[in-house]
Amino acid sequence: MKKKIIYIDMDNVLVDFQTGIDKLDQNTLNEYEGRLDEVPNIFSLMEPITNSIESIKILSKKYDLYLLSTAPWLNPSAWLHKIEWVHKYYGKDKDSLFYKRLIISHHKNLNSGDYLIDDRPNNGAKDFGGKWIQFGSQEFPDWYKVTEFLLAKV
Length: 154
Description:
It is globular, with a radius of gyration of 15 Å. The chain is built from five helices and seven strands. The chain has helices spanning 17-21, 26-31, 52-59, 76-90, 143-152, and strands spanning 5-8, 15-16, 47-48, 64-69, 102-104, 115-118, 131-134. It has a five-stranded parallel sheet with strand order 5-4-1-6-7, covered by helices on one side. Strands 2-3 form a two-stranded antiparallel sheet. α3 (52-59) packs parallel to α5. By secondary structure, the protein is of the alpha/beta class. The relative contact order is 0.20.
């Protein structure tokens, strides 16, 4: 039987954006106020969201998983650091979980699949053709609830 497809956003879903912000000095915070996602190298500073890695490993046994993320248009280093983040936490070998499964897009609604786990409606997430699971919402506040919901669907 063919596995259903889940797309997973990175920022504030797998990757804890605040952990990168917390590592910035005050001068950088002031200079990039209101546009912290444009800080060069900020994505290389970020750590995983609590329980995300464990949940992804569980879900990978039942679903076909892809990362579907948007990188800031004005921060080219973010594009590189996103793939490096995936390599660091999930591996980069051919047998690693997300080997060649990272999609960078500003139009998430163009991807075809069953579920999209994303924290915001932006970049086409709210118009995704499958079910949008809004991470951090009242219904899906954390990875425990997301995993529980998705495991009940298979």
